[in-house]
Amino acid sequence: MAAAPLYCVCRQPYDVSRFMIECDICKDWFHGSCVQVEEHHAVDIDVYHCPNCDVVHGPSLMKKRNNWHRHDYTEPDDGTKPVQAGTPVFIKELQNRTFASGEEILMRMKGEQVTPRYLERHGFSYPIAVTEMEGLGLKLPPTTFSVKDVEQYVGGDKIIDVIDVARQADSKMKLSEFVKYFCKPHRPKVLNLISLEFSDTKMSELVVVPDVAQKMSWVENYWPDDSFFPKPFVQKYCLMGVKDSYTDFHIDFGGTSVWYHVLWGEKIFYLIKPTPANLALYEAWSSSPNQSEVFFGNKVDKCYKCVVPQGTTLLIPTGWIHAVLTSQDCMAFGGNFLHNLNIGMQLRCYEMERRLKTPDLFKFPYFEAICWYVAKNLLETLKELREDNCPPPTYLVEGVKALISALKTWLKREVRGHSLEVPDHIRPNHLIKELTKEIRYLEEETGSSCKPVKSQGSGCGVGSGTNGCPATRSTLERLCQARRARRAARRLREQQRQAPKVPSNLDILEQHTREVLKRLEVGPLEEVSSSNMSMSFLCASCRERPTSPSTEEAIQGMLSMAGLLCPSKPEKGHQRRLQGDKSPMDSQGNSSSEAWDNQGLPSPLNRCHNTSPETDYQYCDPSMSPPLHPSKRHAPNPPPISNQATKGKRPKKGMATAKQRLGKILKLNRHSRVFV
User: A GO biological process this protein is involved in (predicted)?
Assistant: First the structure.
């Protein structure tokens, strides 16, 4: 194979992940990092001279600015072209525009009031501003935290996406380079950083997201630990913008709700309510070729201006269309989360993104996959509420209906070649069928006392006390606790699977059964002779001819080994060890298995002394039996045990003595020998 061509002063092959620039003289390509040319600077170069050609032909030639209102500032300023978003002229005009006050739609609340229960009862349809942080659960660095501190915690070599505001175009650069730019007193252009997700860095330990975002998040509640798809990390963003940074109107990916907290500086939000009419206008505006030349706030009835100063947290609900202006150098933290309160709107926003052909980079990661996980969990939720004879809240019923419709649409797309994000352990058609069945149950009960409730604070149609129907409590909190418990149990099972396997009682019983059956398979003559030989050594005083244990005794031995047979009336001095006893030795110093053996179980050697087993046995719960380690299994010929507990007592009616049973066995053996 031919060697790959080499480029740049470093003589390395082409790397798609690294920015390169072509020399207009020698036509060779150079890595921007090797020739000190940043990607966002390259657009300002008219004719580039590499370090070699620079010596002969002089420095590179820069583009000449001809206007201040177009993304391409080289266009002639003839006054015929409109102002484009993000340019210096646009920013000045924006600051001079008049808007409706954000106080008309803003809900100002204390941190302790913003809870999942409150939002479930009253809905989450309008932005919430929080100035008193106590009770919100939000943890942040101090206000002295700087961009240099971010570099220290995240790492200066991290590649980030920055937005050149005047061109409304993004480019890549190292975080260390952005920090240098941010700290300069005079900046040649306006750069904005809004996509630094730091969940996988040391800085993550400094930030705890608001409780309401954590507890309501689909990712936190429904995403399984063993998912084939990588877990989406969208809850922790650091936003660093210089004065006059601007982000044009948009809806957060997947219709996610978002929380912002301004650590220092100030941001101004321009908010538009997601009515059906406004969403239709937004989709048309987003797909228009002159989008940057039209200020979307002028196309709707009302656009609200909301100033967010230092120390304020803003929560924006699903689907709200918003633009953001950084009025002064600012550092903010934020995050996105999907939840159950506005499922229909979330799905509508996702479908809009698909129609607009939004690149995957700007969409919620594995949105369809998490919807399948949510559908599976909501099915369990509906079943639990139905079993409790409790009505699900209206937002949940409407959300499940919207989810069923979306899942059906995605399955049809798969037939047409669309790649489907269905988790392996989920049966999509069965899941949709079961969800539809649950909705049908609810619709059939319409008009009865248990129908979907509009207010989550009300019980089953009566009162609003918390002691009534379980739906009066926070449904999400209750079911999330159960899911967390199931998750912990799943992790425990995984740990147990990975740990060395300890043989169970049934495993030991099976092994013991095989050993006994092997002995019982010995022929009658061999059996008698072997018994004579072994018993002559162990019991010389016996006058009865010994033989191998009877089938009944073998079964008793097997059951006792498995812990399935225990004395119904344990005698004094032979107390049974109970499950949960942590001591490995009994009061006489015997091991647990030895103490269990010495509970009056009949031994072949006891029969040599004409004693009869007094203790009668019954089946017992295996869970009450002490576990037997393989090293403590019964020996083929256990040592003699004390028979004081049974001495002098008559056997129960119908119970043959050991001597009688032994005589019967010998008689059968003599009879069998005649026919051999």
Answer: brain development
Of the chain, the percentage scoring pLDDT greater than 70 comes to 67
Q: Return d(Cα 219, Cα 234) in angstroms, integer.
A: 9
For 166, other C-beta atoms within 10 Å of its C-beta total: 24
Which amino acid is present at 337?
F
Q: Where do the structural domains in the chain lie, given as residue ranges? A: 6-62, 88-219+232-364, 369-497
For the ranges 11-15, 214-218, 647-651, the lowest mean pLDDT is seen at: 647-651
d(CA 555, CA 69): 95
- Rounded to a whole number of angstroms, the distance between the first and last alpha carbons of the chain is 84
As assigned by CATH, the class of the 6-62 domain is alpha beta
Q: 269 phi and psi, to 5 degrees?
A: -105, 135
Backbone angles phi, psi at 115, to 5 degrees: -130, 160
**DSSP-derived 3-state class of residue 76:** coil
Burial class (CB in 10 A: 0-12, 13-18, 19+), 80: exposed
**Are the CB atoms for 585 and 592 separated by under 8 Å?**
yes
Paired strand residues for 307 = 268
Which tokens belong to 438?
């649950």
Q: What is the pTM of this model?
A: 0.68
Q: At what angle do helices 343-355 and 276-286 cross, to 10 degrees?
A: 20
- In tens, the pLDDT along 435-476 reads 999 999 988 876 554 445 554 433 333 333 333 354 444 554
The angle subtended at Cα 75 by Cα 71 and Cα 81, nearest 5°, is 75
What's the topology of domain 88-219+232-364? Jelly Rolls (2.60.120)
For domain 369-497, say whether CATH 1.20.58.1360 is its number: yes
Read off the amino acid at residue 558: M
Contacts made by residues 447-455, CB under 8 angstroms, sequence distance 24+: 450/389, 450/390, 450/391, 451/391, 452/391, 452/392, 452/393, 452/394, 452/396, 452/397, 453/391, 453/392, 453/393, 453/394, 454/393, 454/394, 455/121
- Cα 396–chain centre separation: 21
Q: Nearest to residue 384, comparing CAs of 292, 455, 470, 461? A: 470
Q: Could you give the CA distance from residue 126 to residue 137 in angstroms, rounded to a whole number?
A: 20
| Token pair recorded at residue 462 | 């009566």
CA nearest to 121, candidates 571, 477, 630:
477
Burial class (CB in 10 A: 0-12, 13-18, 19+), 41: middle
Beta bridge partners of 322: 250, 271
* Beta-carbon contacts of residue 125 (< 8 Å; ≥ 6 apart): 317, 342
Cβ neighbour number for residue 108 with a 10 Å cutoff: 13
